[in-house]
Automatic annotation (TrEMBL):
EC class: transferase
EC nos: 2.6.1.37
Organism: Klebsiella pneumoniae subsp. ozaenae
The protein's name: 2-aminoethylphosphonate--pyruvate transaminase
Keyword annotations: Aminotransferase, Pyridoxal phosphate, Pyruvate, Transferase
MF terms (GO), sorted A to Z: 2-aminoethylphosphonate-pyruvate transaminase activity
């Protein structure tokens, strides 16, 4: 039986060293990409907004292009 990959079921083939734990290796099986909305909006944009707030206290002049 052949299992088809879905758009959210990426397989990342990045081997770790022998001392890498099983849980880390399992986490490495999922490839989070910056072009995926769930990753970009949920992680990248949040971090970017926090960095802008740190760099420009009290100012709302900057926003990410992806944020709208």
């Amino acid at each position: 039986m052949v299992r088809q990959m879905t758009s959210r079921n990426y397989l990342l083939l990045t081997p770790g060293p022998l001392t890498t734990s099983r849980t880390v290796k399992e986490a490495m099986l999922f490839d989070s990409c910056t072009w995926d909305d769930d990753y970009n909006l949920g992680v990248v944009q949040t971090i970017r907004q926090q960095l802008v707030q740190l760099a420009t206290p009290g100012r709302r002049l900057y926003r990410s292009a992806a944020a709208g």
